[in-house]
Amino acid sequence: MDGSVPRLNSEVFSPYSHLLRFIETCFSLAICTQFSSVRIGMVRVYGLLLFLLVLVLVSFGEARPHDEQPLSRIAVHKVQFALNPSAYVKATPTLLGLEGENIQWVTLVYGSPNPSNDDWIGVFSPANFSASICPPENERGFPPLLCTAPIKYQYANYSNSNYKDTGNATLKLQLINQRADFSFALFSGGLSNPKLMAVSNIVTFVNPKAPVYPRLAQGKTWNEMTVTWTSGYGISEAEPFVEWGPLGENQMRSPAGTLTFNRNSMCGAPARTVGWRDPGFIHTSFLKDLWPNSMYTYKQGHKLFNGTYIWGQKYNFRASPYPGQDSLQRVVIFGDMGKAESDGSNEYNDFQPGSLNTTYQLIQDLKNIDIVLHIGDICYANGYLSQWDQFTSQIEPIASTVPYMIGRSVFLLAYITCQDVLLIFSYCLPW
Ligand SMILES: *[C@@H]1O[C@H](CO)[C@@H](O)[C@H](O)[C@H]1NC(C)=O
Ligand SMILES: *[C@@H]1O[C@H](CO)[C@@H](O)[C@H](O)[C@H]1NC(C)=O
Ligand SMILES: *[C@@H]1O[C@H](CO)[C@@H](O)[C@H](O)[C@H]1NC(C)=O
Ligand SMILES: *[C@@H]1O[C@H](CO)[C@@H](O)[C@H](O)[C@H]1NC(C)=O
Ligand SMILES: *[C@@H]1O[C@H](CO)[C@@H](O)[C@H](O)[C@H]1NC(C)=O
Fold this sequence. Notes:
alpha+beta
């Protein structure tokens, strides 16, 4: 990526720009704990009807220690192969997203001849996680047997507490479309001394490369909205665009730019090593000259060079009011939300189950929200890149409908550069 990614929207000129600056001031003084009704120009902003403004003291106030990303508990470099012919893992269904879904549940059935409460299931994607795909830079004198962390994991006894007696169990896991196929592996020896006992069949989405998880951001001018999304289609394969227009009227098309980043642009381990996962392609399109207050529809498209179109789902948003127009704008501001898995996986030390409550609450109340400011410490991916897709999937219902403005944070920058955040969200508030 060599530092050439433009700062797409480092300034917002819209009814929100004063608010953003006000918050920035509060944030830098770290004295602002709550405010309920701020009169800014002609636009009355009733912030925080839903949430108290959670302003972290600038340092690491609320942030958890770095090693608490659940995936970091797994000693990936210590994995030993102990394949056991009578251990097994079976996953069904094998083909996901038959009706266009990007999220689906799978059921695992597994068993072991020497069951223990330490046994766990790791979800790998791509499914082929054999040592032969290790890049040379990951070697430490000897090649590790496993060179990638799972994208999530769960204890084998999670749904059947008597697993250690019966030796078999079932488990339901939720998968999201993340541009690659999946496999499930049964390990013994706990997280700190993992021994691979069995690997499942492969499970895949019908179109793993499908355009997914659109996130909106208020553009550089009040009447512009940006749409950013992720797909598996690079520009050598297809032309990305957004088909959009006023609700119920003729739709037009706007081109999108395509960016990505590679392993070498990561600052260090684990992002560069076991936490690395191909981020796919991130596309951004600029929808301009919006009419104030109007409803719009949009969907992401990719035109393959043989003429075939690949479509995303259809979404709606409401355009910003005219600056100064007397209007009620409802702004939700929070920080440090984190992410969690609704199937209960990765819940080492209760990592961030509350983030699901926050997300669900926002979705329930979406019709009463005009813009969301997520002021930093986004998903605590901490160098495990799979977590970014999971986060953009978690917030999809919100971010695809109202502008979702991201602020970077000190914590985040230690693992991934703000340029990479900019890339994933096309917007990074300047604090
Ligand atoms: C896994 O990937 C390696 C390296 O790309 C390849 O040699 C091997 O055949 C693959 N295995 C399967 C089962 O696809
Ligand atoms: C399941 O295994 C975990 C990890 O070893 C353990 O903490 C938990 O107590 C076990 N649950 C039951 C019901 O035995
Ligand atoms: C475990 O295996 C036994 C015998 O095959 C079977 O009856 C039982 O339903 C299985 N339990 C689970 C949780 O799969
Ligand atoms: C174009 O290519 C895609 C992907 O390779 C394929 O699925 C599709 O059938 C092709 N369409 C035509 C018209 O050949
Ligand atoms: C958060 O969500 C979980 C799961 O839906 C629920 O059990 C819990 O009560 C919720 N917590 C709060 C504080 O609402």
